[in-house]
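Same chain as my last thread, 611 residues:
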Amino acid sequence: MAKLRSVRALCLSLLFPAIASAASLDDYYLSKFGQQAQLAKALESVVGLQGQHAERCRTDLYRSLKRDFTSLQPATQKTLAKYVGRPTLSGQTSPTSSPSYSSAHFTVHYTTTGADAPDLTDADADGVPDHVERVAAVFEEVYAAEVTTMGYRPPPVSSRYDVYLLDLIPQGAYGFTSDDGAPTAPNLSVGSSIEIDKAFTDPMFTVNGLYTPDQMLQITAAHEFNHAIQFGYNYYFDIWYGEATSTWMEDQVYDSVNQCYSYLTDYVPLAATISLNAGLNGGSEYGRWIFNRFLTEMHDTQTTSVVRSIWEKLGTLSPSSNPKTAAGDVQMPPVINSVLVGSYGSSLAADFVGFAQRVYARSWSSHPADLNRIPAATIAASYSSYPVPSQVVTMPHYTFAFHRFVPSAGVADLTLTVAKTSGAQVAVLKRSGGTVSEIAANSGGTSYTVTGFGSLNPATDEVVLVVANTTDVDNHQVSFSTDGTPSTPTEPKVSSGGGGGGGGCFIATAAYGSYLHPKVAELRAFRDRYLMTNAPGRLFVSAYYRLSPPIADVISRHGWMRSGVRCLLLPLIFAVEHPAAALALLLLVLAASLRWGVLYLKGRAREAAAA
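reply #2:
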């Protein structure tokens, strides 16, 4: 029974670790860095349930911790203080006491004792571990590619850029770039340093041997040094575009590694529910690097780089005089649009629709050997019975979807009639014999006729209507039909503010006090990725949106109710943040319940026998 009580105590400690904490921000950061995170990782390890690979990057987590540090409670500050400055490696007394090795542009800091020590083999007997020299050489390759060849501005340094090697297995992260603190106005540029794993040999980094440790070192260096460049342009960069650019840069510098393609499944099939400019959203921010590939294919020449132009433009913009994100950073859609309009004769709206078309057509013009690594488009709905009555599609900001029309011998020519709100755009594509072509709009621009529709092969050919919300406002609509009578769409009334898929998590927002709280953002990401992508999930979300606003209103007006609801939400948030650990916990609870049931039945049997 004592063992059973211990199991129950473990379960409670995992499910309700933050009940004693009155500060929701404290709870959030402790769940990422502190005891809660370590308990989750330990449970996953004990039960043998590990994630596929480590977290790509923690740059924004560290930036956010520094921004929020003074708002945390003293006990939390004491626990997390080591994460807001340069690291002190194991066996060292300060960040500057460790051994180091300098190359032309970098100083690599390492230690020879404790958990942070890398492989100390020194085959050339020059007094520096071979792995440390390899790290410096890789970063020099990255510098040559990103600064010398591609023309990006190097990050600000007084001498050489600092790179620290340490054990990041406890954090489950490849690495991160840590800024030196917010600049003093009117300055925008800040220095930074990079921390990466000491070896990349753990299966969480190599994805169980799919990649080599050296490959992971290469792309992590390319990714994190690009963040250092970004901080040099503007400390206030919007994180989604920072991660999308750094992930895109991995493939620009080390084209043969191709690990960045694994992140595309977190965005491309979900582009109807995950906004291009959503914040951190279940890893989709890494998958959104593919938008930069589209921009470069459309606009780059031998002398121009559209992505570099975007960062150079951002380097001139202060958040005090430009649209800001909830975190106070410069919103990227207006920046991208101004560059496309001013220098490339396009616009973000036009390129976003073109991007959607290329996702469907798979007509990528670069990296031909890797085309099969890009996921196919997800079809939102298919129609094979005609005529199709009026259909209305409501879209979150900067999203797109595809509606398929299957050829029918009974419909010689297919005419699609479309009505749309001001921020929606459409395109009609025909796939015939493996070739995708665009159908021009009829006179007036409200209908499209596909001649010879009935003669297409229904097994291989199709017509697809591309619908896109090309603005930062949720709920733009497209209405379409094949009988010539689309309904009138409704102009949206509320701006999203650029945070993710449409709609609000009303009860969670009331409990945590802000739609922008990190815990609420995690729940929105779960909704977009796992509920909005299937019919039962969408039905649940629809019912929730109908029923929850009045409940949320009551919760928001009572502090004790907000605290209670936060406690009730903890198991759900724990499951969202640590799915493997949650599954393991569920198995432990089931096993404990079964054990308790067996003991109870045996006890009753003994009582019956004694009677």
